[in-house]
Design a protein that fits this description.
Elements lengths: L1 H15 L7 E5 L5 H8 L1 H10 L3 E5 L3 H9 L5 E4 L1 H11 L2 E11 L7 E6 L1 E2 L1 E6 L14 E4 L5 H13 L10 E4 L3 H9 L5 E5 L13 H4 E6 L3 E2 L2 E4 L5 H16 L1 H11 L3 E4 L6 H10 L5
Parallel strand pairs: 1-2, 1-3, 8-9, 8-10
Antiparallel strand pairs: 3-13, 4-5, 4-13, 4-14, 6-12, 7-10, 7-11
Helix pairs in contact: 2-10, 3-9, 4-5, 6-11, 9-10
Protein name: Phosphate phosphonate ABC transporter periplasmic protein
Family: Belongs to the phosphate/phosphite/phosphonate binding protein family.
InterPro entries: PhnD (IPR005770)
């Protein structure tokens, strides 16, 4: 009898692990001006609510660590997480990746001209001011570099690891790092001469093109990294499989609608979504491991 009851307790406990939201909380970190982006993202609430049949709250966070912790403490159900933050959320809280964003690829490393082909990856670049005398990674020794948070794949991990592979340690070699909020701020710090270089995703210059039309000729990339898996839409670890599928389908449907596509395109430069899986991010785990060498 006690064995039977223990078995019952176990199965009901397992069943209770499947979370069914009554109200969905979605959070993201803007890649540019937070106030403007939050206002543009607000209509996503109505679109998601219509697809899912429950109320939806969309909010902006200050950084990805905050979203990861909020998902871990079950205050946030869905996070727009870049690859490294997803890997962290999966490791710490068993968060589940549902989707990867699609964006148009680039024709080459030097320009921000796009192709008409949708891809599930992007790249990071190291930007410098044209005619600054900086021609390669080795010339960055002793310089000042604008970076994002150390969990940022494009704004820290990939370029910092690649610099190390090229014999330059960003934590040593006389380099001063300045952490800025947003890839647009990194570009502007180089443009205004406040830093010698910045890390950012390929295409970051277009974020400031409207206000600084000459940015493409004044700020140029000197290095482009390998492919980085695109941003994810990730859910908390206890989300029920049924709701994982519902959320997957909802975001895909929204991306295909005219109104929805406009929102995701303006907010995150996303053009659509494809199903994703955890093994897609093993390359990130490899880079994370290599990033630990920076402190040695």
């Amino acid at each position: 009898m006690s064995v039977g009851l223990a078995g019952c307790g176990k199965s009901s406990q397992a069943a209770s692990k499947d979370y069914t939201p009554k109200k969905l909380t979605v959070q993201f970190v803007p890649s540019a001006n937070a106030g403007t982006i939050e206002a543009k993202a607000k209509p996503l609430e109505g679109l998601l609510s219509k697809q899912l049949g429950i109320p939806v709250k969309v909010s902006v966070s200050t950084d990805y660590n905050t979203i990861v912790e909020a998902m871990g403490s079950k205050k946030v159900d869905v996070g727009f997480l870049p690859p490294d933050a997803y890997v962290q959320a999966h490791k710490q809280y068993n968060a589940k990746v549902l989707l990867q964003a699609l964006r148009y690829g680039y024709k080459n490393d030097a320009t921000d001209l796009k192709t008409n082909k949708l891809v599930d990856y992007y790249r990071s670049q190291i930007f410098i001011k044209k005619n600054s005398g900086i021609k390669s990674i080795k010339d960055l020794k002793g310089k000042k570099i604008a970076v994002q948070d150390t969990t940022s794949t494009a704004g820290w991990i990939y370029p910092a690891v690649d610099m190390l592979k090229n014999g330059v340690n960003i934590n040593k070699d006389g380099i001063k790092t300045v952490t800025v909020k947003g890839h647009d701020q990194g570009i502007m710090s180089v443009y205004n001469g406040n830093t010698d270089a910045s890390f950012g995703f390929q295409g970051a210059r277009t974020l400031v093109l409207k206000d600084t039309p000459d940015v493409m000729s004044k700020v140029v990339p000197i290095y482009t990294t390998a492919k980085i898996p695109n941003d994810t839409i990730t859910v908390r670890g206890d989300m029920s499989p049924k709701w994982q599928k519902k959320i997957q389908a909802a975001f895909k449907a929204i991306a295909k609608s005219k109104k929805g596509h406009k929102i995701i395109s303006e907010v995150y430069d996303h053009e659509g979504y494809v199903n994703s899986k955890d093994s897609n991010f093993n390359i990130i785990r490899k880079y994370d491991k290599e990033a630990k060498q920076l402190d040695k």
